Amino acid sequence: MNAEIIGVGSELILGQIDNTNATFLSKQLSSIGIDVYFHQNVGDNKDRLRDAVETAVARADILILTGGLGPTKDDITRETVSEMIGRKLVYDENAKDQLEVFFRDRDRPMTDNNLKQALVPEGAESFPNDEGLAWGSAVDHNGTLIIMLPGPPRELHAMFRSYALPYLTGQLNDHQEILSSVLRFYEIGESRLVEKIDDLLEQQTNPTIAPLASDGEVALRLTVKGSSREENETLLQEMKEKILDRAGDYCYGEGDKELEQIVADILRDNKLSVASAESLTGGAFANTMTKFPGASMIFPGGVVCYSNEAKQASVGVPKEVLDEHGAVSEETAEAMAEGARDLFKSDYGVSFTGAAGPDPMEGYDPGEMFIGIASPSGTKGHFVKIKGSRSRIRTYAVKQALYLLFQELRNKKGG
């Protein structure tokens, strides 16, 4: 079965809010084997909404509309859909009772427009709203199941999980188990990774492989459908092994965890810590490492030291190193990393020094830098070159340092 999602609301068209509901629903639908083929956003206009619904009904088995179920005049979803499918709107008595109790408990009068939120198409399945007032519904129209859900994410999530999802699952005639997994790669571009697995992409049927590039890394989402979880796990594992046999050296993890979370978990699990000395990144690495609960266990501290005097005073970079090699150098990066490690008595030290831009620094162009990694087995400064804006350079520098630290930790564990 395939589905289409329509987000209703001018705020979506104007870019005032992101349509996170569509992302949530797509993930939920894929978990029960329903493929989403189209997303649409439509403003609060009856004619345009009707056109969008008619188009979706002609091509989708399931149509889910989000938003436009509130009490105001611009909430037009239920009215538009009901007119199009030729069903009058009727009050769900349980929804009316909920509205009456809500306003009575707050000692407020309930106006007629609030009663709109208890209307559903005649013969529809009603979905209670445990987090709000506007009820949802599901109705069949010429073989397409039309589902209307509220727009506020908190209300939509609760309603979908508690009512719409069980209802949908019960409607599936040929229910298939679906299983997904994500492999995460770094230091290999999307085109190079795709080249390594080109024949697998060309031949893919089940599982399917979808490359997803973002923020200097690449993920491969593998999705398999089958009659049982055991069968799916076998098919998925076989495909993973084929991919990792070709590009395993670049794979840093599997699942939803990103690089920073994986590094933090490895540090915590092994009772290890890292400290930082940052010039180029201005504390961005420290900010990343302190996002996690219990951060003090893995990150005792860090310093921002832009000037040469600060590098000497905070992490003890020798003046002769700065005079002979300069602030932007492998030697300075190594001294900064060692200094941070010594200062905070951590297992690892990370440092950043370089040109963030827009101007060159000490003969280095914007994006050229050294990242130092001090570990129990030794210290090394890594030359890195990143293209882009000052903000992008700083962001990618942190990610590169995380990957270098990940490699150190992986080597310590023996692969």
TrEMBL record:
Lineage of source species: Bacteria, Bacillati, Bacillota, Bacilli, Bacillales
A Pfam family matched in the record: MoCF_biosynth
The protein's name: Putative competence-damage inducible protein
Domain MoaB/Mog: 4-170
UniProt-listed PANTHER family: NICOTINAMIDE-NUCLEOTIDE AMIDOHYDROLASE PNCC, NMN AMIDOHYDROLASE-LIKE PROTEIN YFAY
Name of encoding gene: cinA
Highest rank taxon of the organism: Bacteria
Similarity comment: Belongs to the CinA family.
Coiled coil: none
